[in-house]
Design brief:
It holds the Pfam family HVO_0513_N. Keywords: DNA-binding, Transcription, Transcription regulation. This is DNA-binding protein. GO terms for molecular function: DNA binding. Helices cover 42% and strands 32% of the residues. It is of the alpha+beta class. The protein has an 8-stranded antiparallel β-sheet with strand order 4-5-3-2-6-7-1-8. Strand 4 and strand 5 form a beta hairpin. The longest helix is centred in the last third of the chain and has 25 residues.
Length: 226
């Protein structure tokens, strides 16, 4: 079984209003679509993990939810000062209808989460037969900007590397990546990461070391099993 990671950048008119919200502000960095349920024809139910400067951006995000006409109801569950979950039930029209088609009208498997970024992009992974994967990419609408970031044999162990991190470790790595801490040359310092997280430099450094050590350990474990 093969998999590919697709990055699709939607033009503004094709984005969901909440995805457009991510583009138009700077407090909320991204939203991960973790789970979905399409069993009822009239609406779609989704669970998103929203990440960013929650103290500054949470109320703005909820206000944006309130004005989306297709959203019937939502419920928010706080996680920490960097993220929260939002359960959404939305009528199956417009973008929600297209999302249902994307995730169900295919023999391929969509591997959650689906990441919505602040540049208007959607990042997700798909697993299945090579021919079907090629057909999916070839048949995407021409007005979309599409890139294949990864392609190879599907490996569930690779997926476990991220889930093996604690939520806080994953969050710190996300912030470090966004700030350019892992760029060459490095664009941000541990102090920059700490300031973004609202914690001390030593705390940020400790989280980074533990997360990096865990990922290295998982890589070594995988190498010894080959």
């Amino acid at each position: 079984m093969r998999y590919l990671q697709l990055q699709i950048r939607f033009p503004p008119e094709a984005r969901h209003p909440m995805h457009q919200f991510l583009v138009e502000q700077d407090s909320i960095q991204r939203a991960y679509l973790r789970h979905w349920n399409f069993s009822t024809p009239e609406y779609v139910t989704t669970l998103l993990h929203v990440v960013g400067n929650i103290e500054k951006g949470r109320e703005e995000y909820l206000a944006a939810l309130d004005v989306v006409e297709t959203i019937q109801e939502y419920d928010v569950t706080p996680v920490d000062d960097r993220s929260f979950y939002v359960y959404i039930r939305e009528s199956a029209h417009g973008f929600a209808s297209r999302l249902r088609a994307l995730l169900t009208d295919t023999e391929l498997l969509i591997v959650p989460p689906i990441e919505y970024g602040s540049d208007g992009e959607m990042l997700f992974e798909i697993a299945g037969e090579q021919e079907a994967l090629q057909g999916l990419v070839a048949n995407l609408p021409e007005h979309l900007s599409v890139s294949v970031n990864r392609l190879g044999e599907y490996d569930a162990y690779r997926e476990s590397q991220v889930t093996a991190l604690t939520g806080r470790q994953e969050e710190v790595l996300d912030v470090a990546r966004d700030l350019g801490y892992y760029e060459i040359p490095r664009q941000a310092s541990v102090r920059d990461v700490a300031d973004e997280l609202g914690c001390s430099k030593s705390t940020a450094a400790d989280h980074l070391r533990k997360a990096e050590a865990r990922l290295v350990s998982l890589y070594e474990d995988r190498s010894t099993t080959k």
